[in-house]
Specification:
Keywords: Membrane, Transmembrane, Transmembrane helix. With 359 residues, the chain is mainly alpha-helical. It has twelve helices and three strands; from the N terminus they run βααααααααββαααα. Helix 6 runs antiparallel to helix 7 (183-212). The model is unreliable at 346-359 (pLDDT under 50).
Length: 359
């Protein structure tokens, strides 16, 4: 892969073989997740939980289809426009996962009733929690976990727009680590932001893992974390390889570079994501199954559930994807007026009890 490639030679990422493999896994992932999303909309018995689940599930079609399109239009920097959509939705999913955990546990006030006053654990250098030794869980601790994920929701779209702007003015190129280019600064901010979001999720998990146990938090946490964070570090590693001779640019027959190393590295990232989303779709199907919500209808005596039409499914989907709750939550968590205030939640829950077998 280190030898120079000319546009007259075979370029794997532009080949029909690569497009075929990526397309097969992409459409298989779309079918699996599309059916699962439909099932949740069909048995929409607990909107307070299922709207977050559906938002999480949409990461598969967004990631897979976006990456496939990037391969189909494989040329210098075009993929950046597609990936900007993926970057924005990525942040949306992290927030949705944490919010789903809040719903499982009955909201902020119920969580605080369970953990308030207990010592923070674990406390060690390995988990970067040594500074929390001797401290107890408080509303400020819980608020920090939420802020850590919300900042990623804000940073991601801002940096995506900034990336497009820098690319237009010729100051951004993937894999270009020069100090006069924007890539190194964007990458630095992304690394800080995504690490803080991961740290916030980790702290929340350690604080609530016992009361979250009936909902199989480990499977859900690892699945969501793998899709988002491993793909991020995979892309980062490929970008580093793109800065070396391990990944070569594409030249025309006159020796002029037509596709840069950064674009080639991003192409391999998109190709791998197309394949990985197939396995992610399977994992998410087990992690966020619909059986508990179907059982809710059966227990209530409605074997067929409520009447479902395309209009009702469309209405449920529209309500699910409305992002206004993120802005409301951001105001609640960042505004100084609410720092000591515990938010109460009293959702209308059709599914009152989940068992571990329901997922």
């Amino acid at each position: 892969m280190s030898a120079n490639i000319t546009s007259d030679q075979y370029v794997f990422l532009k080949s029909g073989f690569a497009h075929g493999i990526a397309g097969f896994f992409t459409w298989a992932a779309l079918f699996i997740t599309g059916h699962q999303i439909y099932q949740h909309l069909r048995w929409y018995s607990c909107p307070s939980e299922q709207r977050w689940i559906i938002r999480i599930l949409f990461i598969v079609p967004v990631y897979a289809f976006d990456s496939w399109l990037s391969l189909l239009f494989f040329t210098n920097d075009v993929y950046v426009y597609f990936n900007s959509i993926r970057d924005c939705y990525e942040a949306f999913v992290i927030y949705s996962f944490l919010s789903l955990c809040y719903e499982y546990l009955g909201g902020e006030s119920n969580i605080m009733a369970e953990i308030r006053g207990k010592p923070i654990r674990p406390v060690s250098y390995a988990t970067l929690t040594c500074c929390l030794a001797g401290k107890q869980y408080t509303i400020e601790f819980l608020r920090f976990c939420k802020k850590a994920t919300l900042q990623f929701c804000l940073i991601k779209p801002i940096m995506a727009v900034l990336t497009l702007f820098l690319m237009v003015i010729g100051k951004y190129e993937d894999g270009n680590w020069s100090l006069d280019q924007g890539y190194i600064y964007v990458t630095f901010v992304y690394n800080i932001s995504i690490s803080l979001a991961l740290y916030g999720l980790f702290l929340f998990y350690t604080a609530t893992k016992d009361i979250l146990h009936p909902y199989k938090p480990v499977l859900k946490f690892l699945t969501v974390k793998s899709v988002i964070f491993l793909s991020f570090w995979q892309g980062f590693l490929l970008a580093v390889l793109g800065a070396t001779s391990a990944i070569a640019p594409v030249y025309d027959k006159l020796g002029n570079e037509v596709i840069g190393r950064g674009t080639v590295a991003a192409g391999y990232q998109n190709f791998l994501i197309c394949i990985e989303m197939f396995f992610a779709a399977i994992a998410l199907r087990f992690a966020f199954g619909v059986s508990a919500y179907i059982d809710a209808h059966t227990v209530s005596g409605g074997d067929e559930g409520r009447p479902v039409t395309l209009q009702s499914i469309s209405s449920s989907l529209k309500e699910t994807m409305n992002p206004k709750d993120i802005m409301q939550d951001a105001i609640h968590n960042f505004h100084p007026q609410y720092q000591q205030y515990t938010q109460h939640s009293n959702p209308a829950r059709s599914v009152s009890v989940h068992t571990a077998s329901g997922f």
